[in-house]
Amino acid sequence: MNRLTLMSIITAALACPSAALAENIHVATPNTSLVLDATAGQPLKFLYYGNHLAAADLANIGTIGDAVFNAYPVYGLWPEKEAAMSAVHADGNMTLDMAVTGVSSSTEADGAQVTTVTMTDKVYPFNVDVNYRTYPDSDVIETWTVTSHDEKKPVTLTRFMSGYLPIRRSDVHVSQLYGSWANEGKVEEAPLPHNLKVIKNKDGVRNSHTAHAEVMMSLDGKGREDEGRVIGAALCYGGNYKLMFDTDDSNHHHFFAGINEENSEYHLKKGERFATPPLALTYSEEGLGGASRNFHKWGRNHRLANGNKLRKVLLNSWEGVYFDINEAGMTQMMSDIADMGGELFVMDDGWFGVKYPRKNDSSSLGDWSVDTTKLPNGIKGLCHTADSLGIRFGIWIEPEMSNSISELYEKHPEYILKAVNRDPVMGRGGTQLVLDMANPAVQDLVFNVVDTLMTKYPEIDYIKWDANAPVMNHGSQYQKPENQSHLYIGYHDGLEKTLQRIRAKYPDLTIQACASGGGRANWGILPYFDEFWVSDNTDALQRIYMQWGTSYFFPAVAMASHISASPNHQTNRIVPLKFRTDVAMSGRLGMEIQPKDMSAEDKEQTRKAIADYKAVRPVVQQGDLYRLLSPYDGKGAASLMYVSPEKDDAVFYWWKTEQFVNQQLPRVTMKGLDPDRLYTVTELNRVDNTPLPFEGKTFSGRYLMSNGLELPLSHNVDWHKRNDYASRVLRLQAK
């Protein structure tokens, strides 16, 4: 690391004489600024976060009369305030008193700039590095800390947030995601209350079913899509987290985000370095939509595995056959998806187990050997079949788990998470157990699951990686008795090490993060995964709501969205194929269905829809998202669109979400187009007997963004095909 003196990184000096010795650091992105006062011998101070500052603003930022807060507040002196860090020294002292002792900067291999401010306790040899990372092409700032010490005995860390941000009180509204299994990613918005608001997770393995570690803070009242100042925050962590808003008697809200410290105190040894996960911050004056687009671009370019590569159209076997895997059935499904234009087939659960064949969810996890009674020619035979059909092959695994009915558990009961003197608590199927990822032997085991598959069957193109259980009892057979509180942190450190090994060897392998559906939709896990399964609920109507919320922070290229059967397997709702397809086409398109149960007409309709999707796939998966009409607004419809970065191609989606006679629905105006370019309109996935009146017609971007296009409330189809659903997908191509 290139060490710099404080003076060499000064970008502005406070103008007031009383602050003449202050040294300001300007952490900048193309459109945002974060300004800190890093005066030596003083705590690091927060001065500003928001729109990009000009030189004159930087020179005078300390004179605006705003309150100045510590940029990383610690506990002990004046302990009535919330703190980002607290610790207990070996002598029992529970206080910290930190002061800046150095500043450094470095450039990473991908061009990212990292600024590090080192603070040291004024009495104890205890150090905290506060880090800030920026990218030349991104309006996101990542912040995290690294803590170390040179005390003779371990220091106990009792709180260790990744970052802190003071937010001036006004009419701040917070948008967050909540839900449950099969109902993930729901949007809730509310003004910040007095006192404390906490969003947290304690699942241990998965962290985004019931809540998310991401929030949007609208600074000018209720959030709007394209207007108003918004700060977005996303904690990049796959484990237990805590987000806190402390509204005290000052003029500020105090936002903290980091690992959930509950039952997780960490005993830091001399010379050990404890790194917190990054907290990603963005600022936009283009409302919620602008903040979302900032996260999407940053995510595709810098966090998501292979984020700038297009994803294949696939068929997953799960809802088609569940555990009833057999060679003839897999061959039939591969043939069907190939015939409809798909590019990939994924064999889901049920293909493994020799001593204990996997017939349901009560056995075999951990025994990743092919059940040749189901697959006489093994995986190699299926790979050859896929190749002969011109498609790729993928497979399901759940490598972090075992069952009590398995050869793995019989041989290595010490691998599971279990409290001493307690029987193991079991989950799914009454037998599921969680392996202790902190154990290096388990890390090797999990790595070898993937490595063995890929070594034996290099034709595998895709892995669906599942995780269907939380931590069900607090106990590690690997951790020492005095370090049982390291269980949660150790699990995710071990998982990350394992995933790093896998990605180092197989960088181009597509891996989906599935965790009982959407349990792992977070930016901490996604550097090692190409996409995530939004939800086990594939009902198209409910998916509109879940995918809408998920899009606040995650791009379409990462959101697996599949066409499923009707009646739907989760809700029993009967939804026409057209509507199901139009919803699935707004993410990474796939199928979760048994094709042999589809009619020839439905197969042909799907074939055309897949071809349409392939034509617009670059825009959907890599374009800029504009949310137009929210399903949460109760207007009877929902609409969004994707626009290419060059603004020469766009895809518009519209779905009717309520069905009433003689509805009056708003006409949806479009966004993101070039007002001075002309766009030709083409309907995709059309089922009507006659085209829309504007089919093939050309309109200016200005007209489309000011007026939109009138969409009929039903489809012009034969009488026996009519139903109460309506949806449209329009492509807009610039001339």
Structural class: alpha+beta
CATH superfamily of the domain at 2-303: alpha-galactosidase from lactobacil brevis
N- to C-terminal separation? 50 Å
CATH architecture of the domain at 2-303: Distorted Sandwich
Shape: globular
Q: What is the rounded Rg?
A: 27 Å
> What is the count of DSSP helices, taking H or I runs of 4+ residues?
12
Low-confidence blocks of residues: 1-21
SS elements, strand count: 37
CATH top level assignment of the domain at 2-303: Mainly Beta
What percentage of residues falls in helices of 4 or more residues? 10-25%
> Could you describe the largest sheet, including whether it forms a barrel?
11 strands, antiparallel
Average pLDDT for all residues: 96
Estimate what percentage of residues fall within beta strands: 25-35%
Q: Could you explain the architecture of this structure?
A:
By secondary structure, the chain is of the alpha+beta class. Among the domains are: 2-303, Beta-galactosidase, Chain A, domain 5 (Distorted Sandwich), CATH 2.70.98; 626-734, Golgi alpha-mannosidase II (Immunoglobulin-like), CATH 2.60.40.1180. It contains 12 helices and 37 strands. Strands 1, 7, 8, 9, 10, 12, 13, 15, 16, 20 and 21 form an 11-stranded antiparallel sheet that branches. An 8-stranded parallel barrel has the order 22-23-24-27-28-29-30-31, surrounded by 6 helices. Helix 5 links the parallel strand 23 and strand 24. Helix 9 (540-550) packs parallel to helix 10 (577-584). Residues 1-21 have low confidence and may be disordered.
